[in-house]
């Protein structure tokens, strides 16, 4: 076995791993980055980027369909999935080349192959072993299923859904979380009949209840069907489709079943527990400085319990690199991480929900305000409905920003600055927002919460 020594060895080249590699190299460390598939991981190849490309094609389809409303007479023909996929792959390829070039231009040795932890700070790849003064575990996640629900044939996950070369006529989506509603939205825009099945009482159950309700209204209007608060009991596959049954006895037929019930940590068989890493149900446990129970071994991204988001992984990777380099970075506040769901209409939020804020500060010590996009000029031009909900601590800062409406994902940057910099509504109210933008709605909402509503009817 050939032995190789580096300052930092990283297992997994996704968002968490490659961010740790780039920042470590920047800080003068020698780095080995072990990746069995492609640099960029889930986000670039099977997650964020390809789904958002499909969502953009979906938006174009909707615009063409509705163009007569804006006085543009065009004819919607059909969805050409070969071209849609080529457009998507073109974006992924370009970003992949850029990332590969960037990593190769640094003091980073990319090791192609499947790694396994074989010592406190050592990973083996085939006949070679890589030992770091520090080790970073960043092996990511996989699409989970339910016990007894086998993936295969017409029962697919997001990975398969992204590779499809045709538009299905009818799909059942199991799971009304982020991935489920994004695919439901894409397919509906492409002309598919979609039914979402969700066990909890609402779609996007991790969002503010008012946001869930607004999404349900918007989806109903778009002809996306959903059943919430129901329990899946099984699926039968036949030559032309699937029959999905619920515990209530209800049955639904479709061409495909997309299983979108969440993602599990990819840690099985990788030697973590055997080498002293404390685990919980497959997740790697860390302290708030992202160090595992093995001193000098850290973990980043989806294998660490918490929000499974690419930008969280990036930030954790950067944090770990700086921690290893002795820069003592400020810990990441999980509550300050923005979340965006890119269905139509979009959902974006950061900070506490009203319920969490009431729990933390006492219901009598918080105030909320909901600004309806009906009062926002740009939203009317775009033809979107929705609102911005703010939660503040009385005589204190804004602790939650929650939005729904077309393109609100682009507004979350200001939302996260407000929450993370602990701005008071009065501070934001005195800042000027450009007119006419959707962004103005944030300004208006803060004006209202500061007691001086302008374009608000309530
Ligand atoms: C359909 C979908 C849409 C998504 N959309 C968004 C979005 O819009 N925004 C967002 O923020 N997040 C989104 N996500 C989540 C995001 O992709 C993940 O949070 C992010 O990729 C996690 O990064 P990671 O580094 O932890 O893991 P990954 O990106 O999964 O990377 C782990 C890497 O480790 C490699 N690896 C694993 N085991 C080994 C081994 N033994 N040896 C060598 N290499 C190994 C894998 O090949 C992989 O490249 C989406 C996910 C999915 C599935």
UniProtKB/TrEMBL annotation:
Residues 6-317 form the FAD/NAD(P)-binding domain. It holds the Pfam family Pyr_redox_dim. SUPFAM superfamilies: FAD/NAD(P)-binding domain, FAD/NAD-linked reductases, dimerisation (C-terminal) domain. The keyword Transmembrane helix does not apply. GO terms for molecular function: dihydrolipoyl dehydrogenase (NADH) activity; flavin adenine dinucleotide binding. Residues 337-445 form the Pyridine nucleotide-disulphide oxidoreductase dimerisation domain. Its cofactor is FAD. One of its GO terms (biological process) is 2-oxoglutarate metabolic process. GO terms for cellular component: cytoplasm. Transmembrane segments: none annotated. It is found in: Cytoplasm. InterPro entries: Class-I_Pyr_Nuc-Dis_Oxidored, FAD/NAD-bd_sf, FAD/NAD-binding_dom, FAD/NAD-linked_Rdtase_dimer_sf, Lipoamide_DH, Pyr_nuc-diS_OxRdtase, Pyr_nucl-diS_OxRdtase_dimer, Pyr_OxRdtase_I_AS. Its main location: cytoplasm. PROSITE patterns: PYRIDINE_REDOX_1 (PS00076). Keywords: Cytoplasm, Disulfide bond, FAD, Flavoprotein, NAD, Oxidoreductase, Redox-active center. PANTHER family: DIHYDROLIPOYL DEHYDROGENASE, DISULFIDE OXIDOREDUCTASE. Belongs to the class-I pyridine nucleotide-disulfide oxidoreductase family. This is Unannotated protein.
């Amino acid at each position: 076995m050939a032995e190789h020594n580096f300052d930092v060895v990283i297992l997994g080249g996704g968002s968490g791993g490659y961010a740790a590699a780039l920042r470590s190299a920047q800080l003068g460390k020698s780095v080995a980055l072990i990746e069995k598939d492609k640099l960029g991981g889930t986000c670039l190849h099977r997650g964020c980027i390809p789904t958002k490309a499909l969502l953009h094609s979906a938006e174009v389809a909707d615009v063409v369909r509705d163009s007569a409303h804006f006085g543009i007479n065009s004819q919607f023909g059909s969805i050409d999935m070969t071209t849609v996929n080529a457009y998507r792959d073109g974006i992924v390829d370009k970003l992949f080349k850029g990332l590969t070039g960037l990593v190769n231009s640094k003091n980073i040795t990319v090791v192609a192959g499947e790694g396994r932890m074989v010592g406190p700070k050592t990973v083996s790849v085939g006949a070679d072993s890589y030992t770091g003064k520090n080790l970073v575990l960043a092996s990511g996640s996989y699409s989970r299923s339910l016990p007894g629900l086998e993936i295969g044939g017409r029962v697919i996950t997001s990975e398969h859904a992204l590779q499809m070369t045709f538009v299905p006529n009818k799909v059942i989506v199991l799971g009304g979380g982020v991935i489920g509603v994004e695919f439901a939205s894409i397919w509906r825009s492409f002309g598919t009949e979609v039914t979402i099945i969700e066990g909890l009482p609402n779609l996007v159950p991790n969002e503010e209840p008012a946001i869930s309700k607004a999404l349900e209204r918007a989806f109903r209007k778009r002809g996306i069907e959903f059943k919430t608060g129901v329990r899946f009991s099984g699926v039968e596959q036949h030559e032309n489709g699937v029959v999905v049954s619920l515990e209530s006895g209800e049955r639904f037929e479709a061409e495909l079943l997309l299983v979108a019930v969440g993602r599990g940590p990819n840690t099985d068989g990788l030697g973590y527990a055997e080498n002293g890493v404390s685990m919980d149900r497959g997740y790697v446990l860390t302290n708030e400085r992202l160090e595992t129970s093995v001193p000098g071994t850290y973990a980043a991204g989806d294998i660490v319990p918490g929000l499974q988001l690419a930008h969280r992984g990036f930030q954790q990777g950067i944090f770990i690199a700086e921690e290893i380099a002795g820069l003592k970075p400020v810990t990441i506040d999980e509550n300050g991480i923005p979340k965006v769901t890119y269905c139509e209409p979009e959902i974006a939020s950061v900070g506490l929900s009203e319920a969490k804020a009431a729990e933390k500060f006492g219901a009598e010590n918080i105030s909320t305000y909901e600004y309806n996009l009906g009062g926002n000029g740009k939203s009317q031009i775009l033809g979107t409905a929705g609102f911005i909900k703010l939660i503040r601590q009385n005589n204190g800062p804004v602790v939650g920003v929650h939005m729904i409406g077309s393109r609100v994902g682009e507004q979350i940057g200001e939302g996260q600055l407000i929450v993370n910099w602990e701005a008071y509504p009065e501070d934001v109210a005195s800042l000027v927002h450009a007119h006419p933008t959707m962004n103005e709605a944030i300004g208006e909402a803060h004006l209202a919460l500061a007691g001086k509503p302008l374009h608000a009817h309530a």
